[in-house]
Design a protein that fits this description.
Length: 180
């Protein structure tokens, strides 16, 4: 015996209430990405990054130090709560731009804010020329301090050039003392 219209309508309403993803125009729920604390590594200075990002950052920091540049991190991994507070401050006009909670790679332990000053400083210029060699790249045009670890999508420079496409400084062969 077929259901009358009222029963079909009630059944459809019940299905939509119990399974909201099936209702017309419903957006699929985003899966929350959670970085377990056991995957985090604390950097010198106290900030944390995901284990692979931290290892790459430490290699990059060592390379920078060899050229007289110090990379100081002022923000790394953030909890959802920390990101929410930063976002709320931004929305109230009380803080710098911040991504909506769940949309920041700081929450995944992949983003790092480095003290660089502006784009004319030696620290920024070193990062721009060398960060891609370590899997990092600048992802927010208005934030010269924000760098993200994205090794799969960060292009390596052409041979003999840096990340900006500039020729690498040539290394002159060491001269050996000739015996007389």
């Amino acid at each position: 015996m077929p259901f009358p219209r009222l029963r079909w309508s009630l059944l459809l309403a019940l299905v939509c209430l119990l399974a909201p993803g099936l209702s017309p125009g419903a957006q699929p729920k985003r899966k929350r990405v959670k970085t377990p604390s056991k995957q985090l590594v604390t950097l010198p200075g106290g900030e944390s990054l995901r284990r692979d990002a931290a290892a790459a950052f430490l290699r990059m920091s060592t390379a920078a130090r060899a050229e007289g540049i110090r990379l100081w991190v002022n923000s790394g991994y953030r909890t959802r709560r920390q990101q929410r507070l930063l976002y709320e401050r931004y929305r109230m006009g009380l803080g710098p731009q911040a991504a909506r909670p769940g949309r920041s790679n700081h929450q995944r332990g992949l983003a790092v804010d480095i003290v660089v000053g502006d784009e004319d400083t030696p620290t920024y210029q070193w990062l721009a020329a060398n960060a891609c060699l370590h899997g990092f790249r600048r992802t927010v045009p208005s934030e010269p301090w924000h760098w993200e670890y994205r090794p799969r999508s960060t292009r390596a420079p052409a041979p003999g050039t840096d990340c900006l496409g500039q020729p690498l400084p040539s290394k002159e062969p060491e001269q050996t003392a000739s015996s007389s």
